[in-house]
Amino acid sequence: MQPLLDQHGRIATDLRVSLTDRCNLRCTYCMPPEGLDWLPSEDQLTDDEVVRLIGVAVRQLGVDEVRFTGGEPLVRRGLVDIVRRVRALDPGVEMSITTNALGLARTAHALAEAGLSRANVSLDTVRSETFHQITRRDRFTDVVEGLAAAEAAGLGPVKVNAVLLRGVNDDQAPELLTWCLERGYHLRFIEQMPLDAQHGWDRDAMVTADEILASLSAAFRLSPAAEPRGSAPAELFLVDGGPATVGVIASVTRPFCGDCDRVRLTADGQVRNCLFARSESDLRVAMRAGADDEELAERWRVAMWGKLPGHGIDDPSFLQPDRPMSAIGG
Length: 330
Hints:
Layout: E1 4-5, E2 11-12, E3 14-18, H1 47-60, E4 65-69, H2 79-89, E5 94-99, H3 104-114, E6 118-122, H4 128-135, H5 140-152, E7 159-162, H6 173-183, E8 186-190, H7 209-217, E9 222-224, E10 235-239, E11 245-249, E12 262-265, E13 270-272, E14 281-282, H8 284-288, H9 293-305, H10 325-328
């Protein structure tokens, strides 16, 4: 087995698979109120193609963790069957999902039975009015029910991902952490990244990791977690001596590119070797033209070899990717 090695010595073992670019929320930091032009159905990978490419990654390229993303992966009709088929490929692979949880109350049990390992849920506030303001949808109760269903189904530890927006919810970090601690959810704050469809990201308006930690420290005693971070994106802190933790993913102000072990596959079959990559490598066309698994694997290796040393957000020449986060996957 030849792994997904890049020229800087990093090996990708964590595959993020976007199953759709569609989403049933309209978060202000992600897309406009009217949504976006979705991928044509003929360009989107079929369920069979998704499973085949994951099989190539797992069996020939050393991938041992698969996370399903979107858009919103729960709107993909074949999701449960895809999970079941990937589990059959390799019983040892870790499978998770990053979701807004709107449909999780209905599907958590089926996903767990199919072999999903755990769930990450995006939730930026525990105030229903602020949730409506950020997402442009009145669905806070559905998210709460989805989180509880994931916990009950054994999709744990259930993680909550939160983005703080200046002037909107940047005063709510302690409140959100208290809410998660009471329910046993693992909270991770994420710095807002330049991946919005509107290209309106402003670094000066971004709530930084230092600000997040300062806000939390006003209500809790934080101390660095003892376990090594490794390739994990979140820097963990013990809350009031532990064992509970809170994480901060500071992709912008404290980049962790040197330890990155992730690779992304878009819903239309493109390999992205970095979240902020300006180029992609097409596996869909080659696959539909008759390429065998070894050719697909080699194309994937070539795509990863060209990965840059870092995302370059601080470089004056940095350009935001053409695709927004909703079309790349987290």
